[in-house]
Each structure stands twice: as structure tokens, then as C-alpha cells.
Amino acid sequence: MTDATLAMPARADSLFRRNLRDFRRNRLAMASVLVVLTFVVMAVAAPLIAPQDPNATDLFRRLQPPAWVQGGDWAFPLGCDGLGRDILSRIVYGARISIFIGVAVILLATGVGILAGLAAGYFRGWVDVVIGRVVDILLGFPYLIFAIGLMAMMGPGLMNIVLALAYKEWVIPCRVVRGETLAVRELEYVEAARALGAGPRHIMWREILPNILSPVIVVSTIRMANVIILEASLSFLGLGVQPPTASWGSMVSDGRAFILEAWWVSTFPGLAILLLVLAINVASQGLRDAFDPRFSE
């Protein structure tokens, strides 16, 4: 019995290494990871990378075009917005907001979802019924409309965005963890731990959770792209991070009035959203193909 218990982490570790090797062979996914890491480095080192102060206004440079367009200046390579602020610097600083909110929401939602999913899947009975009904109720609301309603009640702000998005986001990892727990709780090594006198806490955290983390990580990675889009949508509507803090969604919104005469004001932050979200989606697709046994060869 002891040998079987000791062999389980070794098998899990060997499977993880094999899946990781499969992921590294996916060149498109690895390229996407490099793009995401580039955005992360850009966000962390924003004060060193940004060529200008992102909040400094200069009305003499109002709607100045990109450097390669007539009238542009290489000191402001992507041009300036309606207040004369450097667009490149604001994109660099805006990456901080998008990445921070994406990571914070996913970490908070995944933590809550793991706790709720483990409890529902392991204890079942009335615990599963209560958690299941709460999940069903939250899933009945359209995500963006639900977040808009919460933001309207709580008011705009960075932490309020995190809470508003995490308030519903946790149901996704909860359903994944519940389903995996229901499948794993009857396996032999869990029954062996239960026969040896292990309590529910030990079984859930030491026996079940380590063996169901792969699908949870994959789902959380996929959902991060959705969270970044939702944050940009809230900022676009004026319910997200407030001026003068740079946010990609608010930058796109600011350029609506000048979309014909100054296309660069909205286009470049929109491209930043597109590139980051696309890279996360492709990387998460690679993770799914490598770590989800249903998609492995």
C-alpha cells in the first residue's frame, strides 16, 4: 500500500514532464508564450521602456500622427491622442492594468472555484446542491451585463473591476474542479488513503487536488484572455479604470471622436488588445492539447 502511494506522485510528475515536452514542441504555442512574456516585461519595466510620461499633455501635439506619417515625430513614434499624450507610452503603461487585472481576477476566481468545486464534488449531497444552484444562478446572467451592473453599484476603480469580474468568473473553475473531483474521488488511491484513516481535508488537498490541476490550469489560462477583453470593455464604457490612468479600453474609447481624421488614436491600443488576447488564446490552446488527455494522441 505504501509503495503504491509513493508511486502516484512519481507517475504524476512523469506525466507532467511528458506533457511539458509536448507543449514545447508546439512552435506556434511557444511563439505565443514569447509574445505574452514580452507584454509582461513591458508592463513590469514600463518606466524604463516608455519614451514619454504617459499622462503629460501637450496641446501643441494634439492628434499628432505617427512618426512615419507626414507631420510625425520619432520622439512620439505612434503619435499623440486628443490631449497630446504619447500613445506608445500609454500603451506600455496600459499593459500594466490589463495584465494585473487578468492575473488578479484569475487567481482570485480560481482559488474560490477550487474550494467550492472540491467541496461540491467530494461531499456531494446538500453541499453540492447549494453550490450548484448558486453556480446556475450566476450562469444565467450575461457576463458583461452582470459586470456592468456590479460596477454601476460599486463605482469605477481598479479593485472594483477585479471584484466585479471575479464575482462570476469563479463558477468556471468550480464546475471543472467539481467534475474532476467526482471522477477522481472513487479511484483506488483515494480509497486507499480513506482506508488508512485520512480525513477529508487530507484527501482533498493531498490526494485529489494535485491530480486534477492540469485541466484547471488550462481553463484558467483560456479564461484570462476573456477577462482582459471584459476589462477593456468596461473601460471603454467608462466603468473601468478612470483617467488619467492609461487603459487600453479607455484609449480606444477616446479615439472614437477622431476615428476618421486620427485613426491611430484607437487603432494602436486596439491592436495591443488583439495581439495579447490572441497570444494568450493560442498559448492556452497549446496547453490544452498537451495537458488534456482528451486531446493528446
From TrEMBL:
<dbReference type="Pfam" id="PF12911">
    <property type="entry name" value="OppC_N"/>
</dbReference>
<dbReference type="InterPro" id="IPR035906">
    <property type="entry name" value="MetI-like_sf"/>
</dbReference>
<keyword id="KW-0571">Peptide transport</keyword>
<feature type="domain" description="ABC transmembrane type-1">
    <location>
        <begin position="95"/>
        <end position="284"/>
    </location>
</feature>
<protein>
    <submittedName>
        <fullName>ABC transporter permease</fullName>
    </submittedName>
</protein>
<dbReference type="InterPro" id="IPR000515">
    <property type="entry name" value="MetI-like"/>
</dbReference>
<dbReference type="Pfam" id="PF00528">
    <property type="entry name" value="BPD_transp_1"/>
</dbReference>
<comment type="similarity">
    <text>Belongs to the binding-protein-dependent transport system permease family.</text>
</comment>
<keyword id="KW-0472">Membrane</keyword>
<keyword id="KW-0812">Transmembrane</keyword>
<feature type="transmembrane region" description="Helical">
    <location>
        <begin position="262"/>
        <end position="284"/>
    </location>
</feature>
<keyword id="KW-1003">Cell membrane</keyword>
<keyword id="KW-0813">Transport</keyword>
<feature type="transmembrane region" description="Helical">
    <location>
        <begin position="97"/>
        <end position="123"/>
    </location>
</feature>
<keyword id="KW-1133">Transmembrane helix</keyword>
<dbReference type="InterPro" id="IPR025966">
    <property type="entry name" value="OppC_N"/>
</dbReference>
<dbReference type="InterPro" id="IPR050366">
    <property type="entry name" value="BP-dependent_transpt_permease"/>
</dbReference>
<feature type="transmembrane region" description="Helical">
    <location>
        <begin position="28"/>
        <end position="50"/>
    </location>
</feature>
<keyword id="KW-0653">Protein transport</keyword>
